[in-house]
Design a protein that fits this description.
The complex is a heterodimer.
Chain A (H helix, E strand, L loop, with lengths): L4 E6 L2 E6 L4 H7 L23 E4 L6 E2 L10 E3 L3 H16 L15 H8 L23 E3 L9 H9 L6 E3 L6 E3 L16 H5 L5 E3 L12 E6 L8 E7 L2 E6 L14 H5 L14 E4 L2 E4 L2 H19 L4 E4 L6 H15 L4 E2 L5
Parallel strand pairs in A: 1-5, 15-16
Antiparallel strand pairs in A: 1-2, 3-4, 3-5, 6-9, 7-8, 10-11, 11-12, 13-14
Chain B lengths: L4 H4 L4 E5 L3 H4 L1 H14 L2 E5 L12 E3 L6 H14 L5 H7 E2 L1 H9 L3 H8 L3 H13 L3 E5 L1 H4 L4 H14 L10 E3 L6 H6 L16 H11 L11 H9 L5 E5 L3 H4 L3 H10 L2 E6 L11 E4 L8 E4 L4 E5 L12 H11 L9 H11 L8 H4 L4 E2 L23 E2 L18 E6 L15 H6 L4 E4 L1 H7 L6 E6 L2 E9 L7 E5 L12 E4 L6 E2 L3 E7 L1
Parallel strand pairs in B: 1-2, 1-5, 2-3, 4-13, 5-6, 7-8, 8-9, 14-18, 15-17
Antiparallel strand pairs in B: 10-11, 11-12, 14-21, 15-18, 16-17, 16-21, 19-20
Classes of the chains: A alpha+beta, B alpha/beta.
Chain lengths: ~350, ~525
Amino acid sequence: MGQNKLTLTIDGKQMEATMGQTILEVARENGINIPTLCQYAKTTNVGACRVCVVEVEGARTLVASCCMPVNQGMVIKTDTKAVRDAQRLIIELLWSSGDHNCLTCEQNGNCELQNLVYWLQLEKPRFPISPPGYPIERTNTMIERDLNKCILCGRCVRACNEIQVNEVLDYARRGSRSKVGPAFDTDYIDSECFFCGECVDSCPVGAITFKQARFQGRPWELKKVRTTCTYCGVGCQMDLNLHDGKIVKVTGNREYGQPNEGSLCVKGRFGMDFVHSPDRLKTPLIRKNGELKEATWDEAYSYIAEKLSVIKKAHGPDSIAGFSSARATNEENYLFQKFLRAVIGTNNVDHCARL
Amino acid sequence: MTNSIDEIEFTDAIFAIGTNTTENHPVIGAKVKRAVRQRGAKLIVADPREIDLVKYATLYLRQKPGTDVALLNGMMNVIISEGLYDKEYVENRTEGFEAMKKVVEKYTPKHASKITGIPAQDIITAARLYAKARVASILYTMGITQHTTGVDNVKSIANLAMLCGYVGVEGGGVNPLRGQNNVQGACDMGALPVVFTGYQPVGSDEARAKFEKAWGVTLPPKPGLTIVETLNAAHEGKVKALYVMGENPMLSDPDLNHAKEALEHLDLLVVQDILLSETAQLAHVVLPAACFAEKEGTFSNTERRVQMVRKAVKAPGQAKADWEIISELSTKMGYPMNYANPEAVMREINQLTPSYAGITYARLEKEGLQWPCPNADHPGTKYLHINRFSRGLGLFTAIEYIPPAELPDKEYPFMMTTGRVLYQYHTGTMSRLSQGITERAPESLVEINPKDAKKLKVKEGQFVKVSSRRGSVQAKSTVTERVPPGVIFMNFHFKEAAVNLLTNPALDPIAKIPEYKVCAVKVEAA
């Protein structure tokens, strides 16, 4: 065993761990399920929600497994009555302190709170349901916020500060009046928010959602297609979320790894309206009497082929040029330069690399 | 990029020059910010504008637009005179050091300060921060390249990086961040007037013979024309036909009045696009193309990573993928291109392009691959020039500072610099159709320093008229310290305030890139 290695027991099973790992990390590596809400990979473990509590032999109280580093010889239990009672209490408190109405929630079926209610087999909370009654923020087209559904896990705060480092979101007020938002408790649109959407992807419940996706398909009806963003040169991997043949929203996926590790920016996230724009070109057009008129593909190809042949014959291949595209695929750029070089016979091919 | 995006987060120091990273490459911007906030990396930002990244910087250098060579030479002067450079690296891995050193000797911090407007002490501090780092990464974009001295600027950056031994090491490198999804791929695929795929020169008999054999034709050795040269040739009547696939020169090219005349001179203008762009409106034939979400293929990102593009939705109406259109037109012209799908095209690319030889769809299904990837078992290349530069020894170039082509004078007293803003993209054809984005950035804004605004009696939000020797536009002003006195900034996203009516078409003599970052203008309250 290496210097940094140690052994411990979780739920009666002996396992090896590395110094510095948390109980949660070791449990997950070994296929033991400990529920979490506030824990969010690649951000600080804050131990805010306490859903991940476990029993540690010799410890005075239950401990938050997301924050507790492992020690040699630790004996941990994840499914005792004390643990489940604590988890039930936490979930019932969260449930009762918000407006968690799954009937109308966009995240129904994709909600970590809902999953925990079901997993803990809770019929209803033992406390009266009393949501804070905040107005729903619908002052921009991109992100909708319903803080009545917020469980104050702080994932959005950490996503904003530790992943995107935009430093826009934080907590305001205290105790039961705590809420999350930009400085001075303004709406996103009136704040310094850059609309990267990291907070939406990080939200475990339906508090922060994509406004344009509202009522455009339930989570289980959406089909996700992984692709590469079409804006800048970073090449972010993203999921286009489809319903009825339309893109309804764009989400990041942290499992895709480099180059963007699940993060996106405002353009990749909210700049896809153009795909389904009524302004899209739908048929070839040929200019006749000064105006562009609809034509068939055959007419368009014939027109171009004939003109190019005549010009090439009269003025030589170098009288023809092509601008390829930094927006098109590799395969298309390859074929475009091949067309100019092999079919026309000129090296007059360039694209906007310089512009 | 010589290095990879993920290395930026774990390097010791970052020198960002001429890159507004958080707005133009936000996800890379986040990595830079994480490096600073979470790992204590040193960040030096050099930009005439006080961009958002400055908030995170250890040191901010505000150089006058177009004086980058003087700044870089000044930093190298300090690094050499204080003996902070990597002598072993310079000796073993590079050549041309003595000639470079001789030129750099003149650029004392005091001299460099006079040219750049940066305090001499800050140049010294920057030099030390960069040179004393364990490893440092240089990030740059068009703020470096869009100058008549663009090539000089890039070579100066390479000089600086090699001087400190930061090329060919993890976390280091010379890292241009590319602005378009597949500008790297378009270059890799030979959509350039002088090279075939993988930068094999058209002037090389060997390269031509290879492609002639593969394509079954005779190929011309004569280099072709660049975009700006093509438009000039069209203006002169030498180029008669132009086929434009997914480009919008009517907003993106310098001196738009001239560009429009050039396009109107053509006997045939074919535009293949997803929308009726400003350029398409002038075309004889417009071909409707599928967009990225409606087809298969690959894009190559700024770190040379080739990644899959997947079909998610159907193209509208009769629109077709660009690869289908080119194939069908070629076939119509008597040169059959019968590719079953983009994968078949990639197989041909694999055969003709050593750096892409091992990049197959089967492998890309799982994850992207960074070229060079010379065979099916090669894992791809995270960073370049390990142990040896592609050309053998790294070449230092002695470079003197040359001022921009057009400087302010009595009639045009302001320097204008151009670029993008976070929310919009390039000529705006796509991003402006987004409702949410339009709420955030609905119109063009001219950034003016409060001192200048006061002199011109211009208030926040008031319309101003900006004119150069080539044209004039009107747009709303935003009065901000982001720009220094004497400099204004405009973006090129909005056709209503087409900034390229004003820009100077003066080109870098080698790269033929226009000087978008500096031209002389006058500003008046409109």
